[in-house]
Design brief:
Layout (H helix, E strand, L loop, with lengths): L1 E9 L5 E9 L4 E5 L6 H8 L6 E6 L2 E2 L5 H5 L2 E4 L11 H6 L13 H13 L15 H14 L4 E5 L7 H14 L4 E6 L2 H7 L2 E6 L2 E6 L6 H8 L3 E5 L5 E5 L2
Parallel strand pairs: 3-8, 3-9, 6-7, 7-8
Antiparallel strand pairs: 1-2, 1-4, 4-5, 9-10, 11-12
Helix pairs in contact: 4-5
Length: 250
């Protein structure tokens, strides 16, 4: 379980994150919804130690505000919105990097290669393993970075705006894939896309101005309250699978 209590970070002289309190369970997809600049990415950066934070963010017994980088790397993995790759690594080499936090040797092991092969299969990108990552499409690169995170075997998987730079087919694939990846781990996803986010969420956390203003299952979200938060008319709808989503009125 992830237990966040009175979590706070100073992002800039004019923007504070928190105080935040919520909890997340394994086998759930927790989707953090909010407009750009509401603090979603800042929360993930604070969890990863890039921004100093106070309060508690307990991942099992590990406090993310005070732990060492090596302990964090064994438990937390982030797939960022954008990641520049300075060298011409192959897809296989990129995914293999996910094994580094658990490897005490300078060299990768046979087990590491098996883990990478499994991650490539999970993301259906085995055919790309020898391609250079800078040659890939946005969707292929996103799948590669997710495969790297899966190879890391994190307790907490953070996906920051995973649909931001991908095509419609990849968006649809991620809609199916992310709930599968949440099995036996805690999965937090940020997005400003209400319809897509609520379609995969077990629980939605609504951010506004660095604060949590709502925590609820998608079926319990109030369209009028969301309309006030997002300053556009919001409605609920039911998908073909029977899930309730929220979306802007067309």
């Amino acid at each position: 379980m992830l237990q966040v209590e009175n979590f706070h970070a100073q992002i800039s002289s004019t923007f504070n994150l928190g105080p935040l309190s919520f909890q997340a369970e394994p086998n759930q997809v927790i989707v953090i919804l909010g407009e750009n600049g509401s603090g979603k990415t800042s929360l993930f950066r604070a969890f990863c130690g890039e921004i100093p934070a106070t309060g508690r963010a307990l991942l099992q017994s590990l406090n993310l505000t005070t732990c060492t980088p090596s302990d964090r790397a064994q438990q937390v993995s982030l797939v960022p919105q954008i990641e520049s790759v300075p060298f011409h690594f192959t897809v296989n080499e990129t995914v293999l990097m996910g094994c580094l936090p658990h490897n005490s040797s300078r060299w990768e092991s046979d087990e590491d290669h098996l883990i990478v092969d499994e991650a490539l299969k999970t993301l259906h990108i085995t055919h790309l393993k020898d391609r250079f990552i800078h040659e890939l499409s946005g969707g292929e690169r996103q799948k590669t970075l997710i495969a790297r995170s899966i190879a890391q075997n994190p307790t907490l998987l953070l996906l920051d705006e995973p649909t931001a730079h991908v095509d419609l087919n990849t968006r649809s694939n991620l809609q199916t894939l992310i709930p599968q990846l949440s099995q036996s781990r805690i999965t937090l996803v940020t997005t400003h896309d209400l319809a897509w986010g609520s379609s995969i969420a077990d629980v939605c956390i609504i951010f506004q101005d660095g604060k949590i203003v709502e925590i609820a299952e998608p079926k319990n979200l109030d369209p009028q309250r969301l309309s006030n938060i997002f300053k556009t008319e919001i409605e609920t709808a039911e998908t073909k699978t029977g899930r309730t989503i929220v979306r802007p009125v067309e």
